[in-house]
Amino acid sequence: MTTAPPAPAPTLTSEDRLSPELVKLALTVMLGAVMVSLDATMVNVALDTLARDFATSVATIQWISTAYLLALAIAIPASGWAIERFGAKPMWITSTAVFTAGSILCGLAWSAGSLILFRVVQGIGGGLILPLMQTILAQAAGPKRLARVMAAVGVPAMLAPVLGPMLGGLIVSDASWRLIFYINVPICLATLLATRRVQMPDTRRPGAMRLDLVGLLLLSPALAALIYGLAQAGTHGSFTDSHVLVPLGAGAAILLGFAVHALRTRTEPIIDLRLFRTRSFAGASAAVFFFSMAMLGITLLIPLYYQQVRGQDALHAGLLLAPQGLGLAVALFIASRLADRIGPRPIMLTGLALTALATLVYTRVGAHTSVLLLSAALALGGLGIGAALVSAMAGAYHGLTRGAVPRATSSIRSVQQLGGSFGIAILAVVLQQQISAAGHPNAASLAAAYGHAFWWALAFTVLATLPTLLLPARPPAGR
Fold first, then answer.
1. Which terminal residue of the chain, N or C, has fewer Cβ atoms less than 10 Å from its own Cβ?
2. What is the separation, in whole angstroms, between the first and last Cα of the chain?
3. pTM exceeds 0.85, yes or no
């Protein structure tokens, strides 16, 4: 008795155009990822309202965001194994359904504790969706069109910092905060309906039947402890506080234990550290780590600057971020095509240079700096971020086999999550220390504190250029 072969991944019809099936697949998975990214930024705008409604402190209510990040960190390492064990489409449907259920439960929350718990459910679904999107697109595209299709990975990063605060501000101002979670439901349903009409690559592997349980039990708590410690650093304004040092130390120790296990185990580890022997993957991972520190740190600082120094509300601060989204959109369109032709390294270096130049403008920011100048810098920075993001994500897969893509994706997503958490924590601590040193800050001293923090973001961007030199300077020779 014979079985039909698995359906092939969507293919390209010519050297110049993507097939309609591949475009439809990219739009479907992009819709799910945008939903997850928007949710995080919308909730941040509502924290003050939630603290008042639940009659609790900001220190407690911030766990709504922290718990979501911790759940993401726990779920991401398992995504590589899950997509190999159960397949792309079943896991995509499951993760979207879990995120939908978590969104409904969050909207029904009756206390701060229940909302924090339901955010964990939501975060587990979201933590699976993001690496699943990247794996599905990487395997469906093939190396010849990888950069062009991987531009879809940057769309959530483009929309979230712009639309998230704006939508969150509108909802909190004119409706109930519960709508922030309920608005996910129709988007989730649309994603599930679209999934039925697309063809996803067959990612199942016979050798991926066993889960590296020991590795998962080491890696997920290690990432969670590190991210929790970094979140506490932002809360306490110092890296020397015991609330910061204890989880960071525990996380580092557990992570070291995972590294020993992953290198010695005879079974396939949850994240294969041997992937880092591949020059392009190691370089892309390190570049993504430092660039995420800069990118997410800048995303934190700019809206806060507009609100604290320029007196803008959340809605107008979100609108003022629109030039960054415009720059990102242009970069995703252009850089993805150029990276297919000339290779990821020159595009990544160009993107880092543009980001550094834009950040340099913000290091000189004052209380009355021209909004036109700042908007131009934001647009330039958006161009740089988009170019760097596309080239780094595409370059990570050069030299890897098709079967290595799922675990490579979960690895680089974990690196990206850690880098972003480090960047946010470090810049939050630097900013808090500068504001405290000013005594009774006014608009001018606050602007100076932000300028000092932007110098750190600039340094992270410069650091990302060193591992970028390990990326391929030419495009792949074959599909």
1. N
2. 33
3. no
